[in-house]
Write a structure and sequence with these properties.
The complex is a heterodimer of chains A (244) and B (415). By secondary structure, chain A is an alpha/beta fold. Chain A has one domain (2-243): P-loop containing nucleotide triphosphate hydrolases (Rossmann fold). Helix content of chain A is 36%, strand content 26%. Chain A is built from eight helices and ten strands. In chain A, the strands form two sheets. A six-stranded mixed sheet of chain A has the order 6-7-8-3-9-10, with helices on both faces. A four-stranded antiparallel sheet of chain A has the order 2-1-4-5, covered by helices on one side. The longest helix of chain A has 15 residues, at 94-108. The mean pLDDT of chain A is 93. Chain B is an alpha/beta fold and 415 residues long. Chain B has one domain (8-413). Helix content of chain B is 19%, strand content 42%. Chain B has seven helices and 19 strands. Chain B has helices spanning 8-12, 19-35, 50-57, 121-129, 363-370, 376-392, 398-413; strands at 81-87, 90-95, 104-108, 134-138, 147-154, 162-171, 176-185, 191-201, 206-213, 217-229, 234-242, 244-255, 261-270, 275-284, 290-299, 304-313, 321-330, 336-345, 351-360. In chain B, helix 2 packs antiparallel against helix 4 and helix 6 (376-392) packs antiparallel against helix 7 (398-413). The mean pLDDT of chain B is 93. The chains are: A alpha/beta (244), B alpha/beta (415). Chains A and B meet through helix 2 and helix 3 of A and helix 5 and helix 6 of B.
């Protein structure tokens, strides 16, 4: 699914990712943990195609080098990023945005656009699964949403757009335990043999509910250790500093 | 402008003119001639150098009489309405079939001359030469059932003309009026339209005025709008304007009696070298009045937007609640927005606030939308629509709202 080779990324000559290698196969869920400033969010941004980074190395997604592929094309190919801090977009109705988004992706795949009725049915189904009050979806996108509502809205978007590869950037931060469980349930019910996930987190807590196939430790722009679920538990006890 | 000479002969040519009217006109002509076309050294025109703009765009100007003959116009089918048809500013015809008889009166051009001396040279020019226009009056205790659309048509044969028109709207006690002023432009050549508008709201009356200028036009527009609001009256003025080479709307609103409310909302879309200014002066002259102004500008190309907004609160106007906000979204580096908010307050128990901001498209928001599969272009359009949304939300009638949204959509798609 995804093969990252010697990925380096810098902003304003400040080097952040310093030769990162990672392979994710279909159906796998990888967790990336690491201290503040290690480059976790940069990795998420770079994978999404965000402008402003100087990049070298290769990101191969389903056999295609992503380096020159713009943000929206990546989304259309099935890459999804759940934001750590979802943006508030004043004046844009959440439902209209979701429908526009779904239809842009469908259109790019040569599929027919969904009509309002079918769309609302889909939204109803997915939002009730995540315990989202449908009323908030007729409000402006993320404006006045609580922290938990924003994060749930990200997962709702993931479920509606149905990507093959999802990156969750600290989706657990700022969530209470109930919201965390709901979100984990939402992610788990999306897992199948074709879909892959990259879950970025600070804490092992999330991984109690979303079981990763692999856990990587990112430090100073490189993956310094890879293991299975137990690695996260070990880190919880010892902290990151012991690894260096 | 070298090739623009006007003298009192032109005033002599005006039909059926009384001695008082003639001297009023001559006096205003003198006032105009003393300054000429307004220029940037005048404080009120410092961001809109009208003289320079005229010099650059016109080799000559005239005030020749123009025909107001027109075969037929296509009426809007989007919603039921009454209408008034103006041709080159002059009243052509009207139809109030949706209303009860004798409740709405219309006449051509109001000849009253009880206007105060105005320091705006274009107002003086209007007072000196205005001929065309309409005078609309709504009787007491009557709420119009349907909106009145004012089709403001400019014909092909008005090259280099300065059209001076005067319009008057009076809404009597407990009455309600909703108008939509729609500019239709058939003229391919350049012209100037200089309008004086006077709006009178009597006790408990309500006026909603929607101005839509959305065609590409070679017209240069200036409008001075003076409104007077009596007890518990409610005046709303919405301005949706795009595609004009030059447009300045100068609004002076007097809240003369208690509990009156005025609302000025504007969504302007500018492109290329277009220039638009909204200038307001809200005079809070009585206690417990409320004013609200919200001006939103989208500026593309090398366009220039201006907002000069002043709130004046007289010493007796306690419990005034006044608000103004101007925001600009600049899509290109060379676009420009100037804002000058002013408050002049002599009462001590008031709530007045103002804010102004201008900026580019937020790159983080753009990134967010694009990660959801929207193209850069579509994301920008969505952000623009979102930016203007809180102005559109004030339009409650669904079919009128849809009509405006379609107009705006066309404009945004043209970027």
């Amino acid at each position: 699914m995804l093969k990252i080779k010697n990925l380096q990324a810098s902003v304003d000559k400040k080097s952040i990712l310093k030769g990162l290698n990672l392979t994710i196969k279909p159906g796998e869920l990888h967790a990336i943990m690491g201290p503040n400033g290690s480059g976790k969010s940069t990795l998420a941004n770079v994978l999404s195609g965000k402008n402003g980074y100087k990049i070298s190395g290769e990101i191969i997604f389903e056999g295609e080098n992503l380096n020159d592929i713009p943000i929206e094309k990546r989304a259309q190919k099935g890459i999804f990023l759940a934001f750590q801090y979802p943006l508030e977009i004043p004046g844009v109705n959440t439902n209209i945005f979701l429908k526009t988004s779904l239809n842009s992706i469908r259109k790019s795949k040569g599929k027919k656009e969904v009509d309002t009725l079918a769309f609302l049915k889909l939204v109803k189904e997915k939002s009730s699964e995540l315990g989202i009050d449908e009323k908030i979806l007729s409000r402006q996108l993320n404006v006045g949403f609580s922290g938990g509502e924003k994060k749930k809205n990200e997962i709702l978007q993931m479920k509606i757009l149905d990507p093959v590869f999802s990156i969750l950037d600290e989706t657990d931060s700022g969530l209470d335990i109930d919201a965390l469980k709901i979100i984990a349930k939402g992610v788990n019910s999306s897992r199948d043999s074709k879909k892959s996930f990259l879950v970025i987190t600070h804490y092992q807590r999330l991984l109690d509910y979303i079981k990763p196939d692999f856990v990587h430790v990112l430090s100073d722009g490189k993956i310094i250790k890879t293991g299975c679920g137990e690695l996260a538990e070990e880190l919880e006890k010892t902290g990151y500093s012991k690894l260096n | 402008m070298q090739n623009f000479e006007i003298n009192s002969n032109q005033i002599d040519k005006i039909d059926k003119i009384s001695t008082e009217e003639k001297s009023f006109r001559i006096k205003n002509l003198e006032l105009f001639k003393a300054v000429g076309f307004p220029h940037k050294r005048l404080e009120d025109w410092k961001f809109s150098d009208f003289r320079n703009i005229i010099d650059k765009n016109f080799e000559e100007l005239n005030t020749k009489k123009v025909s107001s003959v027109v075969n037929k116009i296509d009426l809007l089918k989007d919603f039921e309405h009454n209408y008034i048809l103006l041709v080159n500013g002059k009243l052509h015809s009207s139809n109030f079939d949706h209303e009860e008889k004798n409740k709405v009166k219309i006449n051509s051009f109001d000849k009253s001359i009880d206007y105060k001396i105005n320091k705006n040279p274009l107002v003086c020019l209007n007072h000196a030469l205005a001929e065309g226009g309409y005078s609309l009056e709504v009787e007491k205790n009557y709420k119009l059932k349907k909106v009145i659309v004012i089709y403001n048509l400019f014909t092909k044969d008005i090259k280099n003309n300065i059209l001076n028109n005067k319009n008057k709207i009076k809404v009597n006690e407990n009455s309600e009026l909703h108008i939509i002023e729609l500019t239709i432009n058939e003229s391919k050549s350049k012209f100037i339209n200089n309008v004086y508008e006077s709006i009178i709201l009597k006790k408990n009356s309500k006026v909603k005025n929607l101005v839509i200028q959305s065609n590409k036009s070679n017209g240069f527009f200036h409008k001075f709008s003076k409104s007077k609001l009596s007890f518990n009256s409610d005046y709303s003025n919405f301005i949706f304007s795009s595609g004009l080479k030059f447009n300045k709307i100068d609004i002076e609103c007097d809240l003369i009696e208690e509990n009156s409310k005025c609302n000025i909302l504007s969504a302007l879309c500018l492109n290329k070298e277009e220039h638009q200014e909204i200038k307001t002066l809200i005079n809070h002259l009585a206690p417990n009045c409320k004013s609200n102004q919200k001006i939103k500008n989208i500026l593309n190309g090398e366009s220039k937007g201006v907002y000069q907004g002043k709130i004046y609160v007289k010493d007796i106007a306690q419990k005034t609640d006044a608000y103004q906000l101007s925001k600009a979204l600049l899509l290109k580096e060379n676009a420009e927005f100037n804002s000058k908010p002013e408050l002049e307050i002599y009462a001590d128990d008031v709530k007045c606030s103002h804010g102004s901001s201008s900026g580019n498209i937020d790159q983080e928001s753009l990134h967010y939308l694009m990660t959801r599969g929207l193209t850069r272009e579509d994301s920008i359009k969505l952000l623009i629509k979102g930016f203007l949304n809180d102005i559109i939300e004030f339009i409650k009638n669904p079919s009128i709202k849809k009509f405006i949204e379609t107009k705006l959509e066309n404009q945004i798609n043209g970027y």
